[in-house]
């Protein structure tokens, strides 16, 4: 099992660098959204910054994203919040060797203030996410982590807080 972890770490070093290059390029990220998450593309999600430790995802307040109360619809906010931790998770599982599956198993939200500007969701749990993924690679068992994503207005006020529970499971190698 230790060899699997060493193999994962060596592969992750290469693949996560390629992934960061993709998501931090505005044009390539838009293509990624159109292919893999078309609703994110329509909502106007974008990456403000993304590295191994922290990811910031922005979502604009606009006609397509609004609810009847003249604020950003809660599901659009949830999509951006999930993506802030999901981008870090994908960075470590995309083209991983051994392969690792990932899935959201729970979502909790607290809405504090109406979202009427660009909202930026930040997740700063990259180290803990990687540790959780590595634990699954090492043990072959499913692991999970609860990630916090805080959404702030363009003036810095907290609008929403989300807790996203991710589950990771290293797949068994094909014989």
Task: Please name the defining characteristics of this protein.
single chain; alpha+beta; Thiol Ester Dehydrase, Chain A; 6-stranded antiparallel sheet; 42% helix
Query: What coarse outline follows from CA principal-axis ratios?
Result: elongated
Number of helices: 5
Order of strands, main sheet, comes to: 1-2-4-5-6-3
The main sheet comes to: 6 strands, antiparallel
User: Which sequence of SSEs, written as H and E, runs from N to C?
Assistant: HHHEEHEEHEE
The helix content, as a percent range, equals 40-55%
The gyration radius over C-alpha positions equals 17 Å
The domain count comes to 1
CATH class: Alpha Beta
Query: Percent of residues in beta strands?
Result: 25-35%
Structural class: alpha+beta
User: Do you know the CATH architecture?
Assistant: Roll
Distance between the termini: 15 Å
Q: What is the number of beta strands?
A: 6
Q: What is the fold named in CATH at topology level?
A: Thiol Ester Dehydrase, Chain A
Low-confidence stretches: none
For CATH, the homologous superfamily is named as Hotdog Thioesterase
Explain briefly what this protein structure is:
Helix content is 42%, strand content 29%.
Question: What does this protein look like?
Answer:
There is one protein chain. The protein has a six-stranded antiparallel sheet. The protein starts with a helix and ends in a 5-residue tail after the last strand. The chain has helices spanning 2-23, 26-36, 38-43, 74-93, 126-139; strands at 46-50, 55-59, 100-111, 119-123, 143-152, 158-170. Helix 1 crosses helix 4 and helix 4 (74-93) crosses helix 5. 35% of the residues are buried. The protein has one domain (2-170): Thiol Ester Dehydrase, Chain A. The longest helix is centred in the first third of the chain and has 22 residues, at 2-23. Helix content is 42%, strand content 29%. The chain is built from five helices and six strands; from the N terminus they run αααββαββαββ. The protein has 175 residues and is an alpha+beta fold.
